[in-house]
Design brief:
OB fold (Dihydrolipoamide Acetyltransferase, E2P), 27% helix, 464 residues, 6-stranded mixed β-sheet, single chain, alpha+beta
């Protein structure tokens, strides 16, 4: 399959897909130099792009290609997770407005909902209105944002987009000469574009051959005709009208280090290259400079150096990003970093609000209680000790999770359901094995990861 890759994981994933026998297309100049190869500029079957928060990648394209790409990505390491996107970019839905906000409307799409900015709507929308919309930007399941919608439907096919109501041909490129040449060549392709749709080429199309351009234009034209057909149908109940395949892949700490190993086959790569770049946008330039100046052997990730530069440090406030195997992200509040060392320990203290009881422990939650959580970068578990205002211990809760990553503003991991608790009287109890079994049954957790989880939990039981 033809794969297009973009973002901080590009070098490693290019190596991954090439090793699997796939063709990487539309490669950027740095990738062409790094691999010392000429990559074709033809249209892609699947696109893989780093998410805005750098935690993973989005995958979109042909359904079979998306499935194959996800299988390759999920096999990177045991803590890589993949989920189907219920509202991928380009998909068309019939929806119903369920709420109107200051800048737009919330639209029920059936399996999920989306956000329609008022500027993207043909007419004024009110609660209860039905609309036919297209997803213009999708969001990963761990993100709180809704997919963005538009009532104008467009037809995409890699190198080209067909736009309704646009006349003629335009080229989105900074190279004016190449753009003029491509616009002039378009008529030679004998395009069978539906009436009323204009042609908008991507910059990468300026480097594609005639065969690739013709295939892209033909594919987009077929999509445009299919969209034209939907416009004649009345708007129905919320649900997909013109599906597009998409998925999201989240990389855990072990995955990022496995990607380092792949990148190292191609170019100088510092220990923790992807872990450092995932921590903060500002880290990318520093990593690139270090790799341009220095030679690195395989070694330990320099957590202390990275944390000193970007955080966290003592006194900082960090949130706890408690990921779930189904893709959701729950924030367990924020706390103050009260201890941090160069080996990767980050101790976070939180003040607990009163009311109810602590899960599994059964002891009361009271105003003035504190929770001291000691995270260790790369560890498959972390303990939280709950104490009352008088300092009395109310129990210890040990969470089993994917290897912890201590980012500047947030501690991240995916919860693996099984936990081990130590009650105030010293009794040790293991809980929620049934939830792990259910996650395996649902396909959210692999058998390999589940077995690792059980091993960690058993070790904790013995240790406590």
């Amino acid at each position: 399959m033809n794969v297009r890759v973009r973002g901080i994981y590009t070098t490693a994933l290019t190596r991954l897909f090439l090793d699997a026998g796939d063709d990487v297309v539309q490669a950027s100049p740095p990738i062409q130099r790094r691999f010392d190869a000429d990559f074709e500029a033809e249209t892609h079957d699947v696109a893989v792009a780093t998410t805005d928060d750098r935690q993973g990648v989005g995958v979109s394209g042909d359904e079979a290609a998306v499935e194959r790409a996800c299988a390759r990505l999920r096999a990177v390491a045991v803590d890589a997770f993949a989920w189907t996107d219920p509202a991928p970019e380009g998909a068309v839905f019939d929806g119903r407005v369920t709420d109107t906000l200051g800048g737009g409307a919330v639209v029920d799409l059936g399996e999920t909902d989306g956000y329609l900015p008022y500027r993207n709507a043909d007419d004024r929308v009110e609660n209860g209105d039905t609309v036919r919309v297209q997803v213009t930007s999708s969001t990963p399941p761990w993100d709180d944002d809704r997919p963005r919608l538009d009532t104008e439907l467009r037809a995409h096919d890699g190198l080209v987009t067909l736009v309704p109501g646009q006349e003629g041909t335009t080229v989105a490129t900074h190279d004016d000469a190449a753009g003029r040449e491509l616009a002039g060549m378009t008529d030679l392709l004998d395009p069978d574009v539906p009436e009323g749709w204009g042609i908008r080429w991507r910059h990468s199309a300026t480097e594609a051959d005639m065969t690739a351009l013709h295939e892209a234009l033909d594919g987009a034209s077929k999509r445009a005709r299919a969209l034209d057909a939907t416009l004649d149908d009345p708007i129905g109940d919320p649900g997909v009208v013109a599906p597009v395949a998409g998925a999201w892949v989240w990389f855990g700490r072990e995955s990022r280090f496995a990607l380092d190993d792949l990148r190292r086959k191609v170019s100088t790569t510092m220990p923790g290259h992807h872990r450092t770049k995932a921590a903060a946008n500002a880290a990318s330039a520093g990593v690139d400079l270090a790799e341009a100046l220095c030679e690195f052997r395989e070694g330990e990730f320099p957590f202390g150096v990275v944390a000193d530069q970007f955080g966290p440090v003592e006194g900082d406030s960090v949130s706890i990003g408690h990921g779930k195997p189904d893709g959701r992200l729950i924030t367990l509040g924020s706390g103050e970093v009260v201890e941090r060392d160069d080996e990767g320990t980050v101790a976070v203290e939180r003040t607990i609000s009163g009311g109810g009881r602590y899960d599994a422990l059964g002891t009361r939650r009271e105003a003035g209680d504190t929770a001291l959580t000691k995270f260790r970068e790369g560890r498959w578990w972390y303990p939280t000790v709950y104490r009352g205002a008088d300092g009395e211990r109310k129990g210890t809760y040990v969470n089993v999770c994917t290897p912890v990553e201590c980012f500047p503003d947030e501690i991240r991991y995916v919860d693996l359901h099984v936990d081990v608790v130590k009650h105030p009287n010293g009794r040790v109890e293991r809980v929620d094995d049934d939830e792990l079994d259910a996650a395996v049954e649902a396909g959210h957790v692999s058998e390999e990861l589940a077995e690792k989880t059980r091993q960690v939990a058993s070790s904790l039981e013995r240790a406590l």
